[in-house]
Amino acid sequence: MIHPLYTLALYGAQPLLRRKLRRRGVAEPGYLEHVEERFGRYTDNTEPGRLWIHAVSLGETRAAAILVDALRRAQPDVRILLTHGTATGRAEGVRLLREGDAQAWFPWDTPKAVKGFLNHFRPSAGVLMETEVWPNVTLLCKEQGVPLALANARLSEKSLRQALRLPRLSRPTYGALGAVWAQTEDDARRLAQAGATVQGVFGNIKFDATPGPQLLERGRAWRAAQDRPVVLFAVSREGEEAEFLRAIAAHPGVQWLLVPRHPQRFDEVAGLAAQAGFAVSRRSAWGESPAAGDVWIGDSLGEMPLYYAMADVALLGGSFAPLGGQNLIEAAACGCPVVMGPHTFNFSEAAQLALAAGAARRVANMEEGVREAVALARDAQERARVAAAGEQFAAAHRGAAGKTAAAVLALVARK
What we know:
Helix content: 40-55%
Structural class: alpha/beta
Number of helices: 17
CATH architecture of the largest domain: 3-Layer(aba) Sandwich
Distance between the termini: 31 Å
Radius of gyration: 22 Å
CATH class of the largest domain: Alpha Beta
Number of domains: 2
Mean pLDDT: 95
Oligomer: single chain
Strand content: 5-15%
CATH superfamily of the largest domain: 3-Deoxy-D-manno-octulosonic-acid transferase, N-terminal domain
């Protein structure tokens, strides 16, 4: 009975979804493009047989990019269908497309929209990145003979508890997946409790990312031109920036660099810094080198390696509020020491491994985090040791992308 009620609720919520898209489209026009695709309606002609990869937002799309690269190395003629749920994810996904590929919005999880999507594209198989599992999508893929896998899969304790509150909905949903490849043994255990059949524990694909050498080179050159330590607050989330700005007021003589997680908040965060009395300099206004300012705002996409290379130390966004933390792997691979807050449940094993490797430090709150970051930034010998540990930590855990690509292609071949 729960599944029909779920579906009925989604049909009833469609007007609310349209309203939400219109509101978000004011700040991010991408949400106003191709809206009907979300409801299973398409106007373009397409060919069947593409490998469908769903990456809901920016982080998942970057993980998908690593997987797509591994797939193309293994099978150069593979054709990809990319779907997304956010405008930032879709904008990032455009960079991955080659001739013969396609891109669309992920369908709203009603039978009509999902059937419209599957009947139009007729994918050879589907790969959902990390956590994005929807009841009608999984059940209808199984019904229509489309193998569907969950790759780079993770499930937190909080998400497991939520799933177990509605076992008659969640267990068939996870059980309908054709394959699940988990990041960690703990993720595998939780996914099995939710109803999934886990075929392998491959590690985290994001370890296989290679920071762009040109971005690293530019960032390091810009850092070398500075006469004071540079501390980065990386991928910050709403509610954290105000706390950060209060904490840094007690630490003069430091160049602060603040990179918000969501691009629609760039203006807001720059405004917060100005209201707090800091001179603000934005990346989008720089020329050949950073302009003077107490707080630099990293208001660009695709340049995180640049920002990590510019910084002596990075505070980890999402970890100073109960949001689960952001990905620290990229910082480690770029040789940037990480100071993280208490909340890293979305990346718990990566955080624990980084701590054990000496590539990161844990603090209790923002004030302590800023103090620790500044002290580490001013200690060249210790900073170099932590940076080297980070690079070694990142290199030691590579290999998940190749394993996942091989498993995906085997899944397609078994169809």
